[in-house]
Design goal:
By secondary structure, this protein is of the alpha/beta class. The strands form two sheets. Strands 4-3-1-2-5 form a five-stranded mixed sheet, sandwiched between helices. Strands 7-6-8-9-10 form a five-stranded mixed sheet, with helices on both faces. α2 links the parallel β1 and β2. It is elongated and about 65 Å long.
Length: 268
């Protein structure tokens, strides 16, 4: 993953999404890897060189980038992250305007343009190039969205919770959500330096949270991965709950609340 590749991806994505003459808007977020600065700027250069605009939100969990893409009515969203991998890796993934992943066919179209050189001659100049904007309130928007997904009146004031932020994209927003819900927090791995993301911490090393939960007699623990799209949960007795357990818990709750029936009816 090089700056040159990122620039070409930005140009190719801008070309694929451009259905009319207006400037399109691409929202770009990232995790805390050192290479994120380099790739972010290369993507911006590629997008702006095709006459489109870039909206920069900085470090934000992948689900947050998907949500903000939809919330700001951007034409597409881009995440710069290699998820749970070490800091020296990186990657780029795209979302549609609705916050959902691109179909394989669209990804293939972008990939083909990167390697074919078909759009190399398209070079807007002067006032036809795009602009870049910093979106400062993106973390706050996402925090409010997460809180709004919980029942009104719910309060975490009786809970002591351990958070492992993997020195990654959740290091600001996750503590903010739980604090604003009233929880007493113990936070670990929330000091990213560009090279310590996922390093002996986070969802790949849930034993850190297990130890803290037991040691401090906490009620719950959460271990996120570098880009915040997966979590391991630790119960008060140190039992580890993975994504399958969480889906089962949500499924049981949805069934008891009649959500399954409503979901099925809306799909018919």
């Amino acid at each position: 993953m090089t700056a040159e590749t990122a620039l070409k991806l930005g140009r190719a994505a801008a070309y694929v999404f451009k259905q009319d003459e207006r400037p399109h808007r691409f929202l770009i977020g990232k995790d805390t890897r050192l290479s994120g600065y380099l790739l972010e700027n290369a993507l911006v250069a590629g997008i702006c060189s095709m006459g489109d605009d870039a909206l920069l939100v900085g470090p934000l969990p992948t689900p947050g980038i998907a949500y903000i893409t939809h919330s700001l009515r951007a034409d597409a969203g881009i995440v710069i992250s290699a998820s749970h991998n070490p800091y020296e890796y990186n990657g780029i993934k795209f979302f549609f305007h609705n916050g959902y992943k691109l179909p394989d066919s669209v990804e293939k179209q972008i990939e083909d343009l990167v390697f074919s050189g078909e759009i190399d001659s398209i070079r807007p100049t002067a006032d036809a190039i795009g602009k870049a904007y910093r979106i400062d309130d993106a973390p706050g928007r996402y925090v409010e969205f997460v809180k709004s997904s919980l029942p009104r009146g719910m309060d975490f004031g009786h809970l002591k919770i351990v958070l492992d932020c993997a020195n990654g994209a959740t290091y600001k927003v996750a503590p903010q959500v739980f604090r604003e819900m009233g929880a007493e927090l113990v936070i670990i791995s929330d000091e990213p330096n560009g090279m310590n993301i996922n390093k002996n911490c986070g969802s790949l090393y849930p034993e850190n949270v297990i130890m803290k939960v037991k040691e401090l007699k906490a009620d719950l623990g959460f271990a996120f991965d570098g880009d915040g799209d997966r979590v391991m949960i630790v119960a008060e007795n140190g039992e580890l709950l993975d994504g399958d357990h969480v889906l089962a818990i949500c499924g049981v709750y949805m069934k008891s609340a009649g959500c399954f029936a409503r979901t099925l009816l809306s799909a018919l």
